Amino acid sequence: MSEYPTQFDKDALLKCARGELFGEGNAQLPAPPMLMMDRITDVSADRGEHGKGHITAEFDITPDLWFFECHFPGNPIMPGCLGLDGLWQLTGFNLGWRGWKGRGYALGVGEVKLTGMVRPDRKKLTYYVDFTKAVQTRRLTMGVADGRVEADGETIYLVKDMKVALSES
């Protein structure tokens, strides 16, 4: 089991972004404005749909978020790539939470389906990441996971086979 808690508030996420949570040279979240969550509500290495780990998080939506002004001026929509990035961020966070060493890197995604939009009138995004594989060997540290993003309870993104690795080089 991890030595870390299973829930993290915004202050803890900012600590992770500064490299203070998992140690220098290990998994970090990006700093605002690229940090795509406000809190992690649950994380594990052995639960989730496949029993290989999971992580859930929330992001509060407010009309003054930076991307609404610049993405399609006059038609404010959160870029879909930011929701995908939030899922990648959480996948890498889970690997660091497990105590695995190295910096996180998104390696790809098998499939992405966007079925809804995030506009300024939304209140909250909820991210769900379920690991299908988590591997740590001498040469490879990698997580493979499926993800889902809900906006106010409505599923708007479905992602299959996200891959994130940790590298010590």
TrEMBL record:
GO terms for biological process: fatty acid biosynthetic process. It is an enzyme of class 4 (lyase). InterPro entries: FabA, FabA_FabZ, HotDog_dom_sf. Keywords: Cytoplasm, Fatty acid biosynthesis, Fatty acid metabolism, Isomerase, Lipid biosynthesis, Lipid metabolism, Lyase. The keyword Isomerase applies. It comes from the Bacteria. GO terms for molecular function: (3R)-hydroxyacyl-[acyl-carrier-protein] dehydratase activity; isomerase activity. Gene3D superfamilies: Hotdog Thioesterase. It holds the Pfam family FabA. Homodimer. PANTHER family: 3-HYDROXYACYL-[ACYL-CARRIER-PROTEIN] DEHYDRATASE, 3-HYDROXYDECANOYL-[ACYL-CARRIER-PROTEIN] DEHYDRATASE. This is 3-hydroxyacyl-[acyl-carrier-protein] dehydratase FabA. The gene is fabA.
